[in-house]
Structure formats: C-alpha cells, structure tokens
Amino acid sequence: MKNIKMRILNFILNFKLLKYLLKRPSWSSNVRIVEWYKIFIASIWVLYLALEIEQFKRFTLPIYKFVSNSNCLKDIISILYVNRVIILLALTVPAILFWFLDIIFKKLSYKKLDPELFPEYDLDDYPFQTHLVEFLNSSDSIHNVFWLDGSWGSGKTFFIKTFFENQIYKKKEIYYISCFGIKTREQAEKILINEIEKQSILGNLDFIPLVGGVFKWFFKTVGTDLMKRDSIIIFDDFERVSYAAKSDNPSDYNDLLGYIDYLSENKRFKIIVILNSEEIKSTKKNLIDNKFKLNHNRMVSTEEVIDNILKKSNLRDDDLGKILSLIYKIYYVDIDERLVQDKNKRKKVEKLSLRSFQKSLEEISMITEDDKMIIYILDCINGWGITENILESLLKSFALEPKDYYLYFEIILKLPKYLPKYYDNFDTKMEKDSIEQNIEQNMKKNEHISFQKKAQYFLELLQYLWRVGKTNKKFRNLGVLENSDQRIYSFYTPNELEKVLIEIYYDILNNNTKNNYQIDEIDTLKSNEEYQYFIKNRLVPKLKTEITINDIPLEHFAKYDNLFRNLYV
User: Torsions phi, psi of 240, nearest 5?
Assistant: First the structure.
C-alpha cells in the first residue's frame, strides 16, 4: 500500500506544470505558487479598498463603460462587485492558512547540504558549512556577522546561493548586495531598499494605476524599517568596494563596515559577508579583525580539496594520481557557471562528485594492464559519456577548426600563446599586443581567469601523460579526429616530424636532451612555416645547451622572425 501511495505521489510530482509551480524562481524566494498567490491576494485587497475611494471610482468609470458593451462581461463584473466581500473573504482563507504554515515551518532549522550531492562542502578540515548552519540557527544576537573568506574562483557565492536554494523552506527574508564599486553607506542602503521593494508583496503591485507610485514613495521613506527581525543580508565581493582594480586602503571600507555594524547590532539582522581577504590584507588586519573578532571562516577552492584528497591516497606520489587530479581540476574550474547555464537552459544537470575522484584513485590503483589503464584515463578525459569532456570545455574558449590533429603538437603550438606567463617567449611588442587582442576577442563568453586555469592545467596534464607514455607508448599517440566532438583517442598515428618536435620539447623540459635528433623529412622542416614557428617560440626559448637535428643546429630552422605572428587569430 505504501509503495502504491509513493508511486501516485511521484506521478503527480512529475507533471511539468506542478514542478514549475512548486519550484523557486530564485534562491532567495519562496516557491512560485506561494509568491503568486500572495501577490494575487494583495492585489485583490488593494482593488477592494481602492473601489471605496470616490476618486478611484471616477478613474475606473470609463473602463467600466467600455467593457459594458459586452453583456457577458457586464454581468460578470456586476456579480463580482455585488459579492466582492464574500469573494474576498473566501480567497483570503488560504492566505491565512499559508500564514499558519509559515509560523510552523519557520521552526525548522537550517540543514547542511546533502553530502552525497555536494561532497565538496562536507569537509572535516574546513567546517565553514557547519559553522554557517550554527550561525543561522543560533538565537545569539551578540555576534550577527558571518565572514566567508576564500580566494577568487573558490565558489563562495555559488555555495551560499546553493545552500539557501536547497533548504526545505525559506525561513527568513534574504537580501543580496554586491559591494562592487560601493564605498558609502548611502549607496549600500539604496541597493538594500531596492531589494526590499523587489521582494515585498506591495513592491510587486507597482503595476496598479495611482497606488503603484505611492508604494514606491513608501519604500523610499520607510526603508529598512520594513525588514523583519533576523532577516539575512548578504554582502558579496566585499574586497571590491572600489572601482580600482585593487584597493587595500582601510578608509575605503570604513563607511561600509560601519553600516554592516549598524545593521547587525542595532537592527539585529544576520549578516553574511563574502570576501577574499588576500586582496585586502591591511584592511583585514587593521580594521576588520579589530572590530569583528568572531565568525571568520575560510572556504577552500575545489582545487585545494582535490589536492588534499590526492595527498591522502595511495597514488599521492604517482603520475597517475596527478593525471586524475588535473582532469578533475579542469572539470571543476568553471563548474558553477556551467551548472547555472544548464539550469537556465532547463537542461538536465550532470555533476561529478568529488567522491568519484576518490573512487577513481582507488580503481586506477588496482589496474595492472596497460590497455585497461589508458582506456580508463581516456574515459575520464572524455567525460565518461555523461559530462562535457575537458578538451571541448577548453577549446570552446577560442576558435579551433574541426580537423584531425596530433593532440600534443596542436595544443602546445597554440595554447601557450593565450597565457601571459609565456609572453617572454615573444620578441616584439607587436606580437604581445596581437596576443592580448586575440585573448580579448576569444574570451567574450568566458571568464579569462577560468580559461587560463584550464589552459595551464591542460598543459600540465599533457606533460604527465607524456611521462606515463614512456612505458605505455599509446599515451604518446593521442589525437583528435575531425568528427569526434573533441574526443581524444589513443590510436592516432601522428606525423613523425611533429612527434620528433614534441619529443624535443619534453626532453628540454625534463633536461634529458640528446645531442642529435634524426628526421627523414628534413626538407619539410625547413620549408614549413608552422614547424619553424614551433621551433622558434616553443623550443629555442627553453634551450640551455645546443641541440642538432640531422647535425644541423636547432636555431637554424627558426630563420623567420615574425612568421605566424597572427596565427589562429
């Protein structure tokens, strides 16, 4: 009987319309049906009271005369008007019920996120989530400010939004303020009042003629006095109060900190401040630490979590462990943005758990056969058939025409050009300007920082794959086929010339160079501009000793100064 009831319930909940109505439109709101009903009831009450005002009646009289041309509409309006009190009371009963349920549900405590779904936040060594739950559930009004500290890209904002989005019930009003460019109390207060108006039922009634303007004036006049006790205010990007790229002047933060103190101490609101203290060390030491001594919590990046998992595994000193950790790091660099995009597109969101990383480390440590090993690693790189593969995730950030290519040569040829740390390899300011322009053009849809991280991780991944390929040659024959959606294969047959150039590249990096390398197609090497570019910009800058190819010094093949300056723009 119980199973039948569950099946019926699941069947009902699977209706798209019902799912839509029971879903929160945003992380800080209630479910749609509740929000809409509140607005509807409020609109009905405002309309009822307005109809008792003679001036409003005169305003609506032309509208009534217009619709009276239809006998049907006229009759409906007449019935509604005559029975307006009864209808209003009947519609208000569910609102009263919601109010009672609201009182009951608000006794629920905040809960930690499901560790099965969000293992990256369930960390014994970094209990920031545990402390957040304790802070929100505490009735202690002495320490009402919670500081969530972490580096840029660690996912602080995404964690906070995900945390509130996944609570069973919205217990309290939540207001979000981005501190980017805000330096004064007045600026912060204006944003907060706009948030209050946006979330208020009355604020959603500005479409009603005449009274809409009154409501707007009302919010500006009353301001934060409308906020409920124990409301939650989130100040994000605290370290960016100045429009300057970087500011660590305590005076820039003094006014805003004073406002935070006022809201927490005088108004008794709970405040969550999200910041990167590494960018404002002086301000934190001389101002924040002196005034706000408690509830400082450090949030680590996913990359740090991955490193810690690897350190505790049997593969901590193994290249295979490093390979797996880099695959997961590339995957997680912009996972928050991709999940949001998928949700906005109403796509089914597939998210790898960091527990799967732990499992992968255990599984690969048990594999002894080389063929099974490369299949396993390539499956990881290619997204296990359920997620976007890491190469595709990387390459969509810049233009790359679909074609068959040798992975190592293609990536090492092109990718360093997009990374600032490789600028020293270029001779002219014109070349560097061209690179910067290229980056700007190709990063319109992607965060530049995220792309750089992915690119650097991928270059590092290739280095470890090449090293493992010393015993398993298939790791050195990695390629991409034109019709493969950027999937990587181990059965690719690379151009021998390209393979030798890559061999030289890694021999230089590993300080393991030969005196002389042999190439059959030496004339092609001399005439091909792409190969000359590779030698000039990828090999020569790293040379510490003389290397020859077919007894010819390597530098002699890089005879063109500015060839391929605008390569792949």
Answer: -110, 35
